[in-house]
Design goal:
Shape: elongated
Structural class: mainly alpha
Largest sheet: 4 strands, antiparallel
Number of helices: 21
Mean pLDDT: 79
Length: about 700
């Protein structure tokens, strides 16, 4: 009865904490949304009011430059109606200034002779115009008229509108992460530590002190409690010392027995620590880990949208100059290969050193790789720098995941892993868009310096976040970065370090892995990471526009994956979601054969994101169902270990296949072909698993 009452009280406390957090976040985000909305509206209004005057000022400068050139030619004795190459000269100016649609040099309006007229470009009826006189010896003998390009002005206004809205969204997400860090790390988690100390005291346990990074008010409460605990420990030590002296002074056995009985009674009811050897009460600050992890993942995602375009602009070696699309995929492929190896081999290091030390160690190659990416314009050195960043990324990824796994009970592991996954997914939304804006403003190379700074910031935050008292970690569950969203489901069971390849003899396991899992990873790293930026660059889209398009993948996954996973679990339709998701993602790639342009590419990314959001988590449930129902001696954990290992192969193969197809054919053909592979793979798995698998789980239909 007491145990039930304690559990009920604990549940009520947890619910109250959740309600406090929710209302704090709603209030803070609501106020922030209102403020940012007003600011965004004012920024757009100001930009719109200043945009046309700025273009007009620029056109005035161009007109003055043209008039000076013509005046110098006339002063040199060349009649204006005898000049040669004027149209070519004006055409070059048009090519260099997209905001100008037409330039003309003609006699003044009151000169009806029309002896000369030079013109380049086409003037729209509604195009704003700037005129400037061309004078010689105090007389006006011609006018330069420049017509602005209204389409370009409109596109610039649209571009800034998108950037402001994107910044608004990302600011909201970043603020949510910071609020969660402050509320959990500085308020709720320290408050829970105080509650735990008081709860231990109510049970007679006074063997720990308390120390957590809290607000000033909670810090004072902690200090008061620590002083009380210290005084209790001192009094207890004095009591036991006095009891020992009193016992030694007794001669009668009866009195000695009574003293021993009293001491044992106190020791059975209470536990005290040495006042000079207090141990700090271990705290569970998993939620506070999310902000440092988010910042580090955000640093890596900054280059996601522009990396292939940047690689093509590097000095490619002679052996790769005739296949730039293939060369653009090599840094991505190298990054994924190193990441896969590190994720597979670094778990013992994280277990031995602890998450905090492993994170700090991982920062060294990660930051060094970002700095090297900034410094080196040589192709091979750049690839090496990306491999160095992958080494650090893999160590940090495993460190954080191991920390969460070691501090999570089986009942809370999925929830805690959702915190880990959420940080990565939010970074996947924010990083590409902000990285594209930075690339437009400060350049590609300088953006890697921003990544280095953010990575260092994450390390500084982590020093005050992760506890140092737990060095031995539980069995880590390493997960490849390219599908960090899988972690929540994969964390339900432990992982074996060496995959059991005998499982490939199971037809359904092999077909699910080869026909669904590997193609989905090929689409992620090949299409989203490589081909989409290259295709948009070929459409003359800016880096910020590329970032916004790539961001759509993360948005689709964040919005749909939790609902799809819950629905698949509730309705027992994992295979249905795997097949439908694979078909949807495949159709996304194939759709590029029907439509073209930036918005068509947005549709491709969104469909692939939606399809993978539907299929990724149900794939993991199907693996477990297949292993449980089959006659194999392998455990579901071993099945997931092999499944994840083969997924990593898809991560590495994606850029290789996509780059090769783009080189031999075209980027558009590569996207369509990979989409066809995904579509045929999902349909083939449907055929192998049986038509009825769409309406029931593999666990129910059996395994052949």
């Amino acid at each position: 009865m007491n145990h039930s009452s304690s559990a009920t009280k604990a549940t009520n406390i947890s619910q109250q904490k959740s309600r406090v957090l929710i209302w704090l976040l709603i209030g803070a985000l609501g106020l922030l949304c209102l403020t940012l909305g007003v600011f965004s509206y004012r920024a757009l209004t100001t930009f719109e009011n200043r945009l046309l005057p700025q273009f007009q000022d620029k056109a005035e400068l161009v007109a003055r430059s043209i008039s000076k050139d013509v005046e110098r030619a006339v002063a040199a004795g060349i009649p204006i109606d005898k000049m040669v190459g004027v149209e070519a000269y004006l055409g070059k100016i048009l090519t260099e200034n997209s905001d100008i649609s037409a330039i003309s040099i003609a006699p003044p309006a009151n000169d009806y002779s029309g002896a000369f007229a030079y013109e380049a470009g086409e003037r729209g009826l509604d195009a704003p115009r700037i005129s400037h006189e061309i004078r010689h010896k105090g007389e006006t003998f011609a006018n330069v008229t420049i017509a602005l390009n209204p389409d370009y002005i409109s596109s610039q206004h649209e571009e800034v509108t998108y950037e402001v809205l994107t910044t608004l969204l990302i600011t909201m997400l970043v603020t949510y992460e910071m609020l969660g860090f402050l509320i959990y790390g500085r308020l709720l988690n320290p408050l829970q530590s105080v509650v735990n100390i008081l709860r231990d005291g109510a049970k007679g346990r006074f063997s720990h002190s308390i120390h957590a990074n809290a607000t000033a008010e909670l810090t004072r409460v902690q200090n008061i409690l620590n002083n009380v605990l210290y005084l209790l420990a001192v009094r207890a030590r004095l009591f036991f010392d006095d009891a020992s002296e009193l016992r030694a002074a007794q001669i009668e056995p009866e009195k000695v027995s009574r003293i021993d009985q009293a001491v044992r009674s106190i020791q059975n009811r209470f536990s005290f620590s040495d006042p000079f050897k207090f141990r700090e009460k271990e705290t569970n600050n998993i939620r506070a880990l999310r902000l440092p992890l988010f910042i580090f993942m955000f640093a890596e995602e900054l280059s996601r949208a522009f990396l292939p375009v940047y690689v093509q602009k590097l000095g490619l070696p002679s052996s790769l100059q005739h296949m730039p699309d293939f060369a653009a995929g090599l840094p991505i492929m190298a990054f994924m290969a190193v990441l896969a190896a590190v994720s597979l081999l670094s778990s013992p290091l994280a277990e031995r050193l602890g998450a905090r030390k492993t994170f700090i160690i991982g920062l060294v190659p990660a930051v060094s790789g970002y700095i090297a990416s900034y410094l080196f314009a040589d192709f091979y050195l750049f690839v090496a720098s990306r491999m160095l960043s992958a080494l650090g990324y893999g160590l940090i990824f495993v460190a954080c995941q191991s920390y969460i796994a070691s501090r999570s009970q089986p009942s809370s592991r999925a929830t805690n892993m959702a915190i880990f996954v959420g940080a990565i997914l939010v970074a996947g939304i924010c990083g590409p868009a902000i990285g594209g804006i930075l690339a437009d403003r400060i350049g590609y190379a300088a953006t890697f310096l921003v990544s280095a700074g953010l990575a260092l910031l994450s390390g500084l935050l982590l020093r005050s976040t992760l506890n140092t008292d737990t060095e031995h970690l539980g069995q880590p569950e390493d997960t490849p970065q390219s599908d960090a969203q899988n972690t929540q489901e994969r964390s339900r069971v432990g992982m074996r370090k060496i995959p059991d390849f005998a499982l490939l003899g199971n037809l359904r396991f092999a077909s699910l892995t080869v026909l669904c899992a590997i193609p989905s990873k090929i689409m992620l790293t090949g299409v989203i990471f490589l081909l989409v930026p290259l295709h948009l660059s070929g459409l003359n889209a800016g880096d910020s526009a590329i970032g916004r398009v790539v961001m759509m993948y993360g948005i689709a996954v964040v919005v749909l994956m939790p609902q799809a996973s819950q629905l698949a679990d509730r309705r027992h339709m994992h295979a249905f979601f795997v097949i439908v998701g694979g078909i949807l993602a495949g159709l996304g790639g194939i759709s590029l054969s029907i439509w073209d342009g930036i918005w068509a590419t947005v549709g491709v990314v969104a469909l692939i994101g939606m399809g993978q959001a539907l299929s990724i988590s149900p794939q993991l449930a199907l693996v477990q169902n297949i292993i449980v129902k089959s006659t194999t001696t392998s455990s579901p954990a071993e099945g997931l270990s092999l499944f994840r290992f083969l997924e990593r192969i898809g991560n590495v193969l994606g850029p290789l296949i996509a780059g090769s197809l783009a080189t031999v054919y075209s980027v558009e053909t590569a996207v369509i072909t990979i989409g066809m592979i995904g579509l045929l793979g999902a349909i083939s798995f449907w055929v192998i698993a049986g038509p009825g698998v769409l309406m029931e789980t593999l666990n129910e239909t059996g395994d052949n």
